[in-house]
Structures
1.
Amino acid sequence: MFDKNKVKLGIAPIAWTNDDMPDLGKENTFEQCVSEMALAGFTGSEVGNKYPKDPEVLKKALELRGVEICNQWFSSFLITKPFEEVEKEFRAQLTFLKAMGAKVIGASEQSYSVQGQLDTPIFGHKYVMNDQEWDTFCTGMNKLGKIAKEEYGIALTFHHHMGTVVQSLAEVDRMMENTDPEYVSLLFDTGHFTYCGEDPLEVVKKYVHRIKHVHLKDIRPEVVEQVKKENMSFLAGVRAGAFTIPGDGCINYDPIFKVLEEAGYEGYMVVEAEQDPAKANPLEYAIRARKFIAEKTGL
């Protein structure tokens, strides 16, 4: 069983309100979202668009509910913007996260990303970096990771993601080989690896000692098949229900949890399953996810 002092459980607000498609869950307030997170038994949250930007206001609201901020998504544009520009935005976010007491920032390279394009099919249209872009990207990640660790005490974890320049295992491999383990860790997302046809168990075995943040999301394979056949975009796939909570899809979590547990994983495991809240009641699914994790991990 996992050590409850070292492994914490969080949930992402994207199940209540979708940042990329704000009409999904627009009726759900910030207060309802964090109250229901606490009610379902989670102590960590990532940051959503409806969250107060003032750390003091946010801190008070979360402390009332026994919840803390554990991570925030950061969109990097290392291969399409000057580094100084990316660094400025990165530092601003690190300042906010440090004020919130977070230990992790989750970066995703969004240059040429098709994940947010409503009309671009998610399969077969991702951008492939050339050698020079790979070098710029990996060098930039190392620099950002060094800033985060040495100046803010925060770990940079990289979020591989459908529709981005780092989606497949081969791309994750290349990034991991060309970045410094001291400064760049992996944000391991079970759902995104499964979605693109990789085996999440293979990945967790390979990189367990460089994983500093975990996203638990499951896949409905019949919906992913529909996304492929009908040339749907990533966001259309989300609306159709490609993602769900752990235990509700096709991923076998037993061996994945076993690898993390045996390696002595420390940090947050976060349920991050974006669905249409009108179809998948966020509180109901949060409670189901929490129950599944308790049964499988003892947490």
Note: The longest strand covers residues 104-109.
2.
Amino acid sequence: MPHSPSAEQLIETLELEQHVEGGYFKRTFQADHRSMIKTEQGERFTLTSIYYLLTAQSPIGHWHLNRSDIIHFFHLGDPIDYFLIAPDGALSTVTLGPNPPLGHQLQMTVTGGTWKASRLTGSRYGLISEAVAPGFDYKDMALGKRDELTRQFPQHKALIETFTRD
């Protein structure tokens, strides 16, 4: 079996940058060969995609919400736990990872309007891709604020505190 790349090799090879929500990313596609689509927030690409990497040095994707639907695809490394809070407050968890017999998912869909946080479960890294439709725009994303999320979802206070910055 070939040697697995290190997190540092992936960051360099894939040209990843630090992401505001935690981890590292790089946009890999935007559908600029198609007409933009109109949304309530303005025109957007029909589809964008990124690589997203959590590492031992940056193991958390902090609470954030996107207006667009996102499909996540697992690629390499250790499993990543995802915590999802629906608009009605229902909590679900999904583990993206390499081993379906252990309950890992190879892909998952998060509908727009769902709060999401993630955590690397191993000691190396977890690499995924995301396909976003309509395409990602920072204007369509909100970072979770601890006091606001706790007020909205008091039943999830411990998880909110774990995955928000002070």
Note: Helices lie at 7-13, 146-152, 157-162.
